Amino acid sequence: MTHDISAERAALLDAEDELAGFRDRFLPITDPGVVAYLDGNSLGRPLRATAERLQHLVAEEWGGRLIRSWDERWLTLPEEIGDELGRVALGAAPGQTIVADSTSVCLYKTLRAAVALRPGRDEIVTDTANFPTDRFLVDSVADELGLTVRWIDADPLAGVLPEDVERVIGARTAAVVLSHVDYRSAAIADLAAITRLAHDHGALAVWDLCHSVGSVPVALDAAGADFAVGCTYKFLNAGPGSPAFLYVNARHHAAFGQPITGWMGAADTFGMAARYVPAPGIRRALSGTPPVLGMAGVQEGVALLAEAGIERVRAKAVALGRWVLALADAWLVPLGFTIASPRDDERRGGHVTVGHPDAERLSRVFIDHGVLIDFRRPDGIRIGLSPLTTGFAEVRRAVERMRELAG
């Protein structure tokens, strides 16, 4: 099939884009050498509102109200932002999502809690292509507790399918730990089907939503998910190192015991009690003092997503993905590139990966010439498509430059 990939077509797509106006909500890129920023699925661009909010927070909330701001506003931010994030992007009712630590720490907490909820079971299921943090932590928790890891070797393009899980899950499985969207190929796992499969075998499901939140709608409650974690500095544009979130289904709250029992997760935070007594509900998932400056970025990112609407964001991500595929087929595949992401819209997340035997070197060349993309081993060049900041003409310029540089 021949696709119109002309500059005129790109201009038309931008003119018809319902979300085009949101690009003005972000600070401009000040480097004149940048042709296109296609790495928003690694680090989203900064919002104007975040810059203004941080200035106000430092000058007024911190500088003016000083320690009083803890009681006036800051202490309840983890739950408030978590509830809004759950409503806007995760399909989670209030009281189940909280902004806490890094993704790694949140994953450790939820994985340890999941295993503890299934005493007598001594296996964890994950896949060999999962993000390194997930694999490293699964190994670490298994070593700590004397468990066995059952590894899934999934097709790298298709991602983990329910039948892949079926082959390794069993009566000894305590938890299944998977990413909803594959960080390399962008393949979307069937969260609902795999969660049901885990439950059918008496296990719990722990989901990594880092490459879905803010790009792909998630329905945690409807799927009956047990636990989930995710970062906020990609499609939520909350800033480098911004705090992650974790979700604990309400049915697990009474028995949920997280392993890092800090004072912020205690029932009486300022009681200075001799023994730890967990707070009721999702608050017990906290450990140390909340990172207020980082949470400001999360709050602004979630507010923007609420205004844009996750369904419209998803529709544009799909359209951008189709556009990249058409451009890559016409301009890159003839140069020896391959498509390393699903072509089916329903199976592809918010980025497209192209493969090339010389991908590592080419990635450096592209970046040096203003096309900011990601290299992912062994041979993937990842084109991030952040719907609120990426335009169709911008993508066309980028792929055209890639063709020129690789030709």
What does this structure look like?
It is a single chain. The mean pLDDT is 98. This protein has helices at residues 7-16, 48-62, 68-72, 77-90, 103-116, 132-145, 162-168, 191-200, 220-223, 292-308, 310-331, 359-368, 392-406, and strands spanning 36-37, 97-99, 123-127, 148-152, 173-179, 204-208, 227-230, 245-248, 338-339, 351-355, 371-372, 374-376, 380-384. Helix 2 packs across helix 10 (292-308), helix 5 packs parallel to helix 6 (132-145) and helix 11 packs parallel to helix 13 (392-406). The chain is α/β, with parallel strands linked by helices and 407 residues long. A 7-stranded mixed beta sheet has the order 2-8-7-6-5-3-4, sandwiched between helices. The protein has a 4-stranded antiparallel beta sheet with strand order 9-10-13-12, covered by helices on one side. A two-stranded parallel sheet has the order 1-11. It folds into 2 domains: 7-46 and 309-406, Aspartate Aminotransferase, domain 1; 73-307, Aspartate Aminotransferase, domain 2. Strand 3 (123-127), helix 6 (132-145) and strand 4 (148-152) form a beta-alpha-beta unit. The chain is globular, with a radius of gyration of 22 Å. Belongs to the DegT/DnrJ/EryC1 family. Its cofactor is pyridoxal 5'-phosphate. Catalyzes the cleavage of L-kynurenine (L-Kyn) and L-3-hydroxykynurenine (L-3OHKyn) into anthranilic acid (AA) and 3-hydroxyanthranilic acid (3-OHAA), respectively.
